[in-house]
């Protein structure tokens, strides 16, 4: 555990990456507080926003992969959706749902949005672009507001 000691003693970009990663999983954790703290301590806004965005994006990819490879189990055992309901849901999602990935940063609904994208096998490139844009805009907005408030 000595390896993790420096990671937890003071705010750092690796710590921001890890916290942002974990915040994008099913763990009830936020990362904005650390981003604001680091900006207040003089860390580069650009570096913190990019680090948090990449960490949060990679974390959301774990949920996407769970949906992608666990779709049969989730559909049949957890949601108990029959094939008619599934096809209807898939048509609706294909028509409107992929754009919801821009909102994958929202608390509570963000994880299910990424999970459903995996279940319905959204293309990796489309998933990545939409999710990263949403997460980047969120962190950039938080950083801007934090910097503006402290100036």
Task: Jot down its keywords.
single chain, 151 residues, mainly alpha
Please tell me about this protein's structure:
With 151 residues, the chain is mostly helical. It has one domain. Helix content is 74%, strand content 0%. It has seven helices and no strands. Helix 2 packs parallel to helix 4, helix 3 crosses helix 7 and helix 4 crosses helix 6. The radius of gyration is 17 Å and the shape is elongated. The model has no long low-confidence stretch (mean pLDDT 89).
Helix count, DSSP H or I runs of 4 or more residues: 7
Question: How many β-strand runs?
Answer: 0
Question: In sequence order, what are the helices and strands, one letter per element?
Answer: HHHHHHH
Structural class: mainly alpha
Shape, please?
elongated
Mean pLDDT reading:
89
Distance between the termini: 39 Å
- Estimated radius of gyration: 17 Å
- Beta fraction: under 5%
For the report, how would you describe the main beta sheet? none
As a percent range, the share of helical residues equals over 70%
Low-confidence parts, pLDDT < 50 over ≥5 residues?
none
State the domain count: 1
Which SSEs are present, and which pair or pack?
Blueprint: H1 5-9, H2 13-23, H3 32-40, H4 45-79, H5 83-96, H6 110-119, H7 124-150
Structure summary:
This protein is mainly alpha-helical. It is built from seven helices and no strands.
């Amino acid at each position: 555990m000595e390896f993790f000691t420096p990671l937890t003693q003071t705010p750092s970009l690796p710590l921001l990456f890890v916290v942002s990663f974990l915040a994008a999983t099913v763990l009830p954790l936020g990362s904005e507080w650390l981003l604001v703290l680091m900006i207040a301590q003089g860390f580069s806004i650009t570096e913190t926003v990019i680090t948090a965005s990449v960490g949060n994006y990679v974390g959301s990819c774990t949920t996407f992969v769970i949906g992608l490879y666990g779709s049969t189990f989730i559909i049949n055992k957890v949601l108990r959706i029959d094939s008619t309901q599934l096809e209807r849901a898939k048509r609706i999602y294909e028509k409107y749902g992929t754009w919801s990935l821009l909102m994958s940063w929202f608390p509570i609904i963000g994880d299910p949005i990424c999970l459903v994208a995996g279940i319905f096998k959204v293309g990796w490139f489309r998933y990545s672009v939409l999710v990263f844009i949403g997460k980047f805009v969120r962190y950039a907005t938080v950083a801007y507001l934090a910097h503006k408030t402290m100036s």
